[in-house]
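User: Second chain of the day. Same drill as before.
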Amino acid sequence: MNTVNISLTQNQVNQVNQATINLGFANRSEFFRALLRKTLSNPIALEEVKSYPFISPITKNSQEIVSSFKKTNKYSTKFLNDLKEGLEDSPYFQ
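Assistant: Same format as last time:
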């Protein structure tokens, strides 16, 4: 087996360590090998990883997007208006 070094933030190291323990892996290497096997064997997951956290929205319809945000009742009118304006200005959503 080959050794590969990667750089992680301290938060990522903490999360990997916790996941390794919680999921019962013998060590971090086993955790990463399982993660790679699962990701590399799943074309959809692999495609999502490519652009994460910038996953394309399901729709390009700005009205649908604003409506879905509004339905959550988590966002102020000002935010929703700014969102609508930004989407209308974006060539991606036209």
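Residues 62-93 form one domain.

User: Great, on to the next one.
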